[in-house]
Amino acid sequence: TATLLHDDVIDGAEMRRGCQAVSTEWGNETAVLMGDWLYMSAFETALQQRNLAILDALTDATRKMTEGELIQLALIGNMRITEEQHLEIVTRKTGYLFSASCRVGGILRGANEEERRALADYGLCLGIAFQLVDDLLDFTSDSTKLGKPVLSDLREGKVTLPLIRLLRKQPQFASLVRAAMEEPAGETRLAKQVLASLGEYGELDHAREEAYAYVARAQEALTI
Hints:
- By secondary structure, this protein is mainly α.
- A hairpin with a 2-residue loop joins strand 1 (15-16) and strand 2 (19-20).
- Helix 5 packs across helix 6.
- The protein has helices spanning 2-11, 22-26, 28-47, 52-75, 83-108, 113-140, 143-146, 152-155, 161-169, 174-181, 189-200, 203-221, and strands spanning 15-16, 19-20.
- The model has no long low-confidence stretch (mean pLDDT 93).
- It has a two-stranded antiparallel ribbon with strand order 1-2.
């Protein structure tokens, strides 16, 4: 929850899970401090276990998540972002959080190192799949189900997997995508043209298949 509060400040998002974002309702200062408070509360909970392996997993994940946000900020609006760069962001932003959560579950229940590693791999692949689907829902869902405006990633200058592949294969769409990013608030005409192009060239389906592949890898990690 702490990461989501900070995310909304960074992204300038107005809605979260169908409600006003904390930053919209009470201001960025309150949202940042509340996010910090939640982070410390999470680590206080972890400290109660007096287990260094748990703290190692959580601090490592926190560092990697912050690095992912910094990398994403550096690449906002960059339509030359590669699949590899985007996957690195996804892995750091979401994959490592899921991975650490699953590893900690194993630590708490006395799993051996092989089992902890398998749980961590499961969480990593599941987290990547989750983020790929989340990116996809920005194009395919509606605001009622999503809890925030659709096409908001595009407006924020985030070039996610379907767009990366479309621009690589069909570079003539670059000017349309750029114009859609700069559309005035409340207008979606150009964004919907981008969405139609993604559907026409099958990139939404391809991104969904990619998420399914990571789900399969997650399941495979648990076969031990």
